[in-house]
Structure formats: C-alpha cells, structure tokens
Amino acid sequence: MKKSIKAFASVLAAFSLASCGINQGDINGADGTTEIISEEPDIATSDDASMDASQNDAEEEYVVQPAPVTVEGRPEEEGSLAPENRYSLAGVHEVDGRQGVAYGDECYYISGSTTLTKYDSEWNKVSEAEDPFAGFENEVNHIGDIDVYDGKIYAGVEYFMDGESKNIQIAVYDAESYQLVNTYSFDESSGQTEVSGIAIDPDSGSIWMTSWTGDESGRYLYRYDLENGSYKGKVHLQCPPQWLQGIAYYNGCLYMTADDGTADLGEPDHVYKTRIAEDSTTANVVLERTLDDVTLQGEVEGISFDKTSGQMLISYNRGSQIVLGMVKGFYEGYTEEIHEVFLYNIEGFKREYSFEEIDECVDGSGWNLILVNKDNPVPDDYTVSLTDLSNGKQVDTRIYPALQKMFDDARDSGIDLFVREGYRTREDQQSIMDNRIQEYEAQGYTAEEAEDMAKQYVAIPGTSEHELGISVDINANSNVSSDDTVYTWLNENAYKYGFIKRYPENKIDITGINNEPWHYRFVGQKAASEMKELDMCLEEYLDYISE
After folding, report:
1. Active site residues
2. Who has the most CB within 10 Å: 135, 175, 484, 508?
3. Would you identify the CATH topology of the domain 355-424+464-546?
C-alpha cells in the first residue's frame, strides 16, 4: 500500500512538474517506466560514491517560477499580524438599540433594527428618528451598523427576514433631523447578499460595507465611492473572520466586530483589524481583541471610535437567543434583550492639542488668576473637576490640554519629564506639613523652630496651590534627562503654554516661599507671557493689572 501511494505521488509529481515546464522523462527511468521509490532509505555504496562526475554535469538544472502575487513581502515575518494596541474596559452604558454605534460631533448615535437615536456626551438620550424608513422607494425594514461623517448618518439598510436579505442599500440621513438625504443601491455583481456593517473612510474617500450572511460572509469587504456611491470593488480578507457585524475606520485601519463565538457555550466574540493598501485586492486580518469582559456572552454588533477621548466603542446585546439574526427566545433570568455599549480605553492613545484649545479654557471668570498664599486661603466653596494622568496624579480638567501639549512638545525636543505632584486634598497637605515638621524635630530643632522651617518649603494647609488642581510639580525622568535640563526647558518655554514658575528665586521676599524650580502654575497664555516679559510673580501681576 505504501509503495502504491508513493508511486501515485511520483506520477502526481511528474504531472505537477510538467505543468511548470519540466518533462516527464526527467523523473522516469531510461525506458520511460516510473521508478518506484523504496520504502527503506538508501545506503550509499562505494559504487554510488564513484558515480561519473560527467553524469552530474550533464543533468539539467530547473528553476520553478513562482506565480505572480499582488502582495509584496510576508506579513507574518514583518510582525504586522500582531495587534497594535491594548484595550482596557472603561465603562458600560445601556442604550435603546441593538445594532450599531457611531461617534460624531461630540455625540453618540445608536441604531436599532428599526430606530435611530442620539445621545449626548454623558450618554443621555436627546432625540430619536420618528420614522427612519420614510422616503425609501424600495421596501426596507432593517437598519444595521451606522457611521457618522460630516453631519450625516450613513446606514446600511435592507429588507431582512430569517437570514435572507433584499433591497440592500446605503442610506444617508441628516444627523440633526434624521431626514433621508440620499440612497445608494448596492451592486448586484459584487456578490454581497446582506449588509451588517458600514464605515466611512474619508482618507480614501470610501464607504466600506460588510456582510453577515452568504458564502462571502467574512471573506470580503465591499467598497463604494463616498462622493457618488458607485461600486469600486471588493477586498479579499486573508485569514477571514466569521459572521462580520460592524466595521469602523480609525487611524488608517478598518476594525471589524465578528459574532464568531457561540453564546450557548460561553464563547467570546472578537474584534479584528486590517490595513488595506491603495489599489490592493487583498488584506491581512489581525485578531485585535477578545471580548471576554462583557457582561454576558451574547451577540456583538457595531463598532466605532470616540476620537476625542481615544476610546473604542462596542455595541453588544445580551439575554436573547439569536437564530439567523432574529430573536427566538431568552436565556434564563431574562425576559427581554439588553443593549449596551462597552467603552474601551486605548493604551498609548495621545490626543494632539492646539494652542487655540488652551486659550478656550480661560473663560474670563478669573479662575486661572485666583491668588492662594499664606494670606489668601483657598475659598471654602471652591470646587474642582479632575482629570487623571497616566501615573495616577490628577489635575484640573481645564488645564489638561495645556499640560499635555507642553509635555508632548518637551518630549519631542528630547526632554523627558513627569508630574510628581498635582492636585492635593487639604488632608494630603496637612500630612506633608506634619511629616516635614517631624523631620526637623528629629534633627534636634524645637517644635517651634521645626514648624517655622517647614513653612519655608511647605504651604500651610488651606493655602496650597495644589489644592486648586492648577499647579504641578514637574521632575525629570532621570534615566533620560537631568532635573537641571528639565528646569531650564520649563523656565524658557512654560509660558508659551500658560504656565509660570510660581516661586522664583528672586521673588522669595514677595511669595514667602523658597525657590522651587519644579513648581509651575497655570495662569493662561496671555498672563504668562506678560509676567515673563515683565519679570513678575503672580502677586505683582495681580497688583499690576488692577491699577
């Protein structure tokens, strides 16, 4: 049996090589019969070793030419098949709508199978379309995933029943009024039999669509022209995912959700990613995130990205049993389907801030110029809204854009720095003061002497700018930069971002605080520039502008 198989393999090899331009006789015996390969490995004899060298020279060398390919390089060898980001669950919001989610104009949009709704930045529902199917020439009853671009909602719509679709089209709505603006019919020659997801790619001027059913489900992405809706072709996904539901464009990549887990078995669904080169007919797919941290394994739907906060948004349903895309029952403990949007922070996300955004936070109320020192304590009614930094420190949300831009620009200049101290509570400040007093007492100073010395470096609780949240202590990452390098850069550049060195060495008699080259206070760009030019501390500047 083994010999027969090997003989067949030899014949097959002969046929294969012949198809590449190699004659069958080249692998046959001299009489044209097929040589049977022995089961046992050959052992070289002296006769074999003394084979006439002329026979070797006479053998013809053959080169097998590879077939032409449309992709250059091997992605698996270049590392491009690994996820680029890590994602951590940041929050969950229950919504009205089981299909899609989209972010646009600082609002969130949700699609149900028959609904379109809008939520504000705090996830409060603010409006809903009365009849999203009004105005269609061909009958439709189902909305899939959505996207929002340039004040318009783009939705994949169709007539859908028990896994079968017809009248597939792209619907374009006004994002404020929900009025139907335009529709684009799908191209029947594309092979697409259903529409689940839709994404706008403004960089290439494309509308991308996915299909959940049919033989091509997961194998292809369908591309339409953003300007006129014409069909531009499809891209074959390599390592294709199953049961694609949603799609979103973000930072040059297309992200797709796949309903590829079996909910009855507790299997998770997944997020995949691909990057499509211009004019390419194929694209490699990467497993980007396993959705193992949802409330209950169910059915994943749409996907979007909040480009302001740098979060990935995933639409997910739980509680219902889905058969061919239709709710056919409920799991134990559920009498209705729950629709949720899961928010995932993208680690490493860095938002680029502009100087205009820094100016916008100075609203004229005077919060940026509030004076806090030993004679002017923090007002009792003072409140602050805080933003967490990556190292756990906190600052007033209003100064975050300026602080982030200053740090980004410093790092681009080769300066590596970090916030050692930001916002402090009154209790934190008291603890710091107590510890400093104890240190001086341990050195032999009396309690009174120790307190006086501590007050030269530590603000009395209730009089510390750190309690405002608009002051930071900045130090160097000693592995990259020295403190002197950081302090010099800050002294020369911090004013551009609205920060001042609050306690300079030549103003100790006015501030009452010793030189602190690390302590910077936000006052706004205008005030910081003027104080820099006039060589004034905050106390002097407030007297100057009041005259």
Report:
1. 516
2. 175
3. Muramoyl-pentapeptide Carboxypeptidase; domain 2 (3.30.1380)
